[in-house]
Design goal:
The chain is of the alpha+beta class and 340 residues long. Helix content is 23%, strand content 26%. The chain starts with 5 loop residues before the first strand and ends in a 6-residue tail after the last strand. The chain binds uridine-diphosphate-2(N-acetylglucosaminyl) butyric acid.
Amino acid sequence: MQTLTQSLKTLSTFAIESFGENVIHLQSLADVQALATNLPESFYILGGGSNTIFVEDYAGALICPELKGIEVTTTAEHFHLHVGSGENWHQLVEHCLVQGMYGLENLALIPGNCGAAPIQNIGAYGVELSDVCDYVDWYDFDKAEVVRMSVDACQFGYRNSIFKGALKGKGIITAIGLKLSKAWQAKIAYAGLKELGSEATAHQVFDAVVRIRQSKLPDPAQTPNTGSFFKNPVVDNNTYQRLQAQFKDIPAYPQADGSVKIAAGWLIDQCQLKGHQIGGAAVHVKQALVLINKDNAKGRDIIELAKYVQQMVVNKFAIQLQPEVRFIGQQGEMTLEQFV
Ligand code: EPU
């Protein structure tokens, strides 16, 4: 077997000591074009590493889009931003706030790069990327050109998009287009923001979001983690009624289509799993939806812990949690079930 020499520890905020060989940095469209003409057999596109865990050594190529640039144009009603996929998301949020372009403040402190934002349609405190997205520029490996995809074409859903589905591995996001209304209104429906009141400024919303996140979510620089580990499960109304009859205070968010989103963190918490540790991996003590690399976790520790959490939740609630994070094993991207 090939000996891999490049540590991947710093390429993922979960910081597991695993090894690769071939990390490709793309700094321009010309770099993307050159890559497309000579595409590696096995590759994974990494957008900041805040939602990816290197469970095992991986001999394939890791492609890192690092295209920079923020261009702003204005129309009577909107600021239009064209942002390179390699720009850091939180820095963009801060930049917009300073420039008086509001609408991203609820999405403050989300780790990762702008090019990764559409892939899982990042969302927090009542706002999703899809609410502010105008288009996504995506380099199509087959067509060998950049295709501008409308919001509809991106098929955004809860932590989902076409880039995770039909277009996975078929191209690279080079830039995103955002459209921020000049007639800004605070979005404060989320429980922790309501008390700001409808007169809140964008700076106040930003500060509140930063405060909430810092109080609940571990800073990856101190405690390696990849944010929410599982998605909040969406169940049909019958299932919700069954759960609600048994668990009166289950946090639930009705969806437009009649289904109901349930708080996965609450489900895990009810299984008394906060702080539960397997090897070096643990459930965070303040937010049960976040699994952390507490003490030099090995890839198998986090897989075992994730499966244990899933099993406990199935046993108590008969709900199967689905990971939000993505796993890289020897064969490239793998599902949790594929690790035995
Ligand atoms: N809860 C518990 N115990 C816990 C964790 C949560 O009882 O250990 C309860 C809370 O009290 C609350 C409910 O569960 O009633 C929901 O918790 P919270 O508001 O913290 O949000 P979440 O559903 O756990 C989601 C996103 C976060 C986002 C927040 C705020 C997903 C998978 N996660 O978390 O996104 O920041 O809402 O909008 O949708 C991420 O994707 O990495 C992420 C951090």
